[in-house]
Amino acid sequence: MLTAEDQSLIQQSWEKLKGKDDAGAEALERMFMTYPQTKTYFPHFDIQHGSEQVRNHGKKVVDALGKAIKNMGNLSQALAELSNLHAYNLRVDPVNFKLLAQCFQVVLAVHLGKDYKPEVHAAYDKLLSAVAAVLAEKYR
Ligand code: HNI
Question: How many of the other CB atoms lie within 10 Å of CB of 5?
Answer without folding.
Answer: 10
